[in-house]
Structures are given as structure tokens and as C-alpha cells.
Write a structure and sequence with these properties.
3 helices
């Protein structure tokens, strides 16, 4: 069984056992991964925006079934209440 060295600081900071070069490499890898995840998120957002644009165009192209305004469709009596 291996002896535990480094005490509490090793438990609280897993990078405590790394030398400066190892820490730099770890930070570089973390930065690259964060950038990769940002690219994925941005692409997903772009895909959603594009899909919403297509859906919007599709709805705008539908024929108008009733050209009355919502107020005209509901209809109001002389007291301004829906009839």
C-alpha cells in the first residue's frame, strides 16, 4: 500500500503534486476544452436560430384565413365588453 504524502493540501488541490510544467499543460488542456465546448454551444445556438428563422418563414407563407383584427373577431358590445 502506497504511503499518503502531501497532507491536506494534496487533497484540497489535486494539482499540488504537479510541477510547473504539468500545471501549465493542465491549464492549457482545460482552456482548449473550454474553447471546444464554446464552439459546440455556439454552433447549437446558431442551429436553433436558423431553425426558428425557417419556421418563421413557413408561418409567414401560410395563407391568411381571416383578415379581421383580433378585436373584430371577438366583437365588443356598447360597454366595451366581449360580446
Amino acid at each position: 500500500m502506497a504511503a499518503i504524502t502531501g497532507g491536506t493540501s494534496t487533497l484540497l488541490d489535486p494539482t499540488a503534486r504537479l510541477d510547473e510544467s504539468g500545471r501549465r499543460e493542465l491549464l492549457l488542456n482545460m482552456h482548449e476544452e473550454a474553447e471546444r465546448l464554446d464552439r459546440i454551444r455556439n454552433q447549437q445556438q446558431s442551429d436553433v436560430v436558423a431553425r426558428l428563422g425557417r419556421l418563421s418563414g413557413w408561418y409567414r407563407a401560410l395563407p391568411v384565413q381571416d383578415s379581421r383584427t383580433p378585436d373584430e373577431i371577438i366583437g365588443y358590445d356598447e360597454h366595451g365588453l366581449p360580446a
